[in-house]
Write a structure and sequence with these properties.
single chain, alpha/beta, 6-stranded mixed beta sheet, 4-stranded antiparallel beta sheet, 10 strands, globular
């Protein structure tokens, strides 16, 4: 479904990403991990059109999308959530999801809220879709609450609902459990599995290695801008290069 070929990104003399290639199969849950500064978020930015690569290509569903603007990628079915949540904090939970639904709707958000005759029928469908998503992420009871008043874990779940409202085929989650306690982390893992079970392919960038190991079927590990390992969790867990990267141990010293 998604393929990156030889992706590189330089900022002056710094190689933030250096010749990285990866493949994401349809229906999979893939984790992208690595120490701080490994280049994970830069890869996300390159794939989702936030940055243009210095070299390399990105393909989605067989189509070259290198440098395609994020809004156009959403229309193609590739959607990314951000580590710093982009919520409309002074709007209700339901209104936040309605904004996401409006991306796919023939009726704009404000026009839909205005309730014009032309918009009413479409607006009803959009509202039904938004409410269904709030039930799915277990936030239906909070639909009239201001987004800023939600507990942190619920705000992250709302971010997932907004992403789902755009009807993604591939959902890229940037540190979905950052700052969460163990209970919230477990809840998010269950939610991501349910999203995947509905047919959405998932890519996760995350610092929490145990979370990724339990959630993902395939893991790509980066360090200093390069891919150093790739495979299922059981292989990654015991890979000497991965152990060295996370513990700061030289591989030669381990031998």
């Amino acid at each position: 479904m998604l393929e990156a070929r030889g992706l590189s990104k330089q900022f002056g003399g710094l190689h933030a990403v250096d010749g990285l290639s990866l493949t994401v199969d349809e229906g999979s849950i893939v984790g992208l991990i690595g120490p701080n500064g490994a280049g994970k978020t830069t890869v996300f930015n390159l794939v989702t059109g936030q940055l243009r690569p210095s070299a390399g290509e990105v393909h989605f569903k067989g189509r070259r999308i290198t440098g395609t603007p994020p809004y156009d990628l959403v229309k193609l079915g590739l959607v990314r959530t951000f580590q710093s949540m982009v919520l409309y904090s002074e709007s209700s939970v339901l209104e936040n999801v309605l904004r996401g639904c409006a991306v796919r709707s023939r009726v704009g958000f404000w026009r839909g809220l205005a309730g014009s005759r032309q918009a009413t029928r479409e607006d009803e469908k959009v509202r039904e879709r938004a409410l269904e998503l709030l039930h799915f992420v277990e936030l239906a009871a909070a639909r009239d609450e201001l987004a800023r008043n939600l507990p942190y874990g619920h705000q992250r779940a709302l971010g997932v609902a907004i992403g789902l409202a755009t009807e993604p085929e591939l959902l890229m989650l940037d540190e979905p459990v950052a700052g969460m306690n163990p209970e919230e982390t477990a809840h998010m893992a269950r939610l991501i599995r349910r999203v995947n079970a509905r047919g959405t392919t998932i890519v996760v960038v995350e610092h929490d290695m145990s979370f990724v190991m339990q959630l993902c079927r395939e893991i790509v590990v980066m360090n200093y801008g390069k891919k150093i390992a790739e495979g299922p969790p059981e292989r990654i867990r015991n890979d000497p290069a991965v152990v060295a990267a996370y513990l700061g141990v030289d591989e030669d010293a381990q031998a």
